[in-house]
Every structure is written in structure tokens, then in C-alpha cells.
Please model this.
Amino acid sequence: MPACPLPADEALRQRTLDDMNLVDTPAEHYLDTLVRLTQDLAHVDTVLISLIDQDRQWFKARIGLEASETTRSVSFCGYAILGEGTLMVPDAKCDGRFVDNPLVLNPPFIRFYAGHPLRAGNGKAIGTLCMFDPRPRVLSEAQQANFRDLATLAEGYLQLRTLAQVNRDLRLEMDREQRKALLDPLTQLWNRGALSAFEEHERRLAEVNGLQLGAV
Model:
């Protein structure tokens, strides 16, 4: 079988995925709920949120499959991230790209597949919301619309998660820089700036507790 092709912007796409810090992270209840809902609405065996890493596809959320990853070279999702919309494969045994794929010939015996790209904030496709089944089939127009909407929710969650992580990192870095500015580099004791910053708070605290405040 032909190896899954790489996007033209693969280096930037991979760097984007790396920067999002998603791969090999614990399961998250929101995404587990989303794949379960997708399974219920589409009546398929398996639904995944698949992240396309350098040489593998790793599943951030999954239902209906025990494996946590597969090699990228045999992935259907590697094809799905090449396009703009949903990749639909009604019967993999009738599709030259997948007819001799190990995932078709062996468990999980994929026949039907649908995968919709999930994009980072910069527009790069980092993975898919995908579903597959051992029986050939097609999705109705309503099911396709539902699938696109669910992919939008998954994409939005991953983007918001990344923004939240960036904000946390910035706050921590700012806190570290602020602390450095208030410490004497030689003794690591509070400097004059720290005394000025803390004076009002400590004065109020002393008054509340009926204590005297002194500085040496």
C-alpha cells in the first residue's frame, strides 16, 4: 500500500502540534463525552480524536478501540488532514488508497471511515475527529452536518485549552520575573522595592492585629 502523503507545510504543522502540548497527555472528560456523543449520533463502532504526530497518530480521546495509537503511515487520518472538509470513505475495500491497508485487512477491519480536520489557531491541521465501522455505509446529510458541528466543538476545545495553557505559563513567568525584581541577587533577601511594595499591606495587617510594625 502507498504510504500516507505528508502535507506541504508539514514542518510548520508539526511544530504547531508540538507547541500545543497535547500529545501524550491524560484523558479529558469533555473530549471523552464528545466522542461518546458522536458514536451515539452516528451509530458507528469507533470514534477518535486523533492527533497526527511525526510518525504516529495518537488518540487524545477514543471509544470503541483499545489501542492508544497507530503508525502514521497506515492512518486514514493522515489523508483527512490534507483536505479542507470531511474525508468520507464509504467502503475502504473499494478505495485504492486503502484496499490493502493493514487496518482494513486486519482488526479493526475498517470499511467505512469519516474524518474531519481539527485545526490550530493558525489554521494548521493537527488531527481529526474521525469515526469508522466494519460495515460499508454512507452518512445522511443530517449526520454529516452533525459530524461537522461536533468537529467544530472538538477543535474549539483544543484551541481554548492551548490558550489557557499559554496564559498560565505567562502568569507563572511574570510572577517569576516580579519576584526576581524584588530580591537582592547576592543575598536573596527582599530589597528596597519589596519593602515599598509590602509596606502598606503589612501596616494594615499590624493595625488589625494590634501590633507595631518596624523595619531594620
Remarks:
- The CA atoms of residues 99 and 105 lie 8 Å apart.
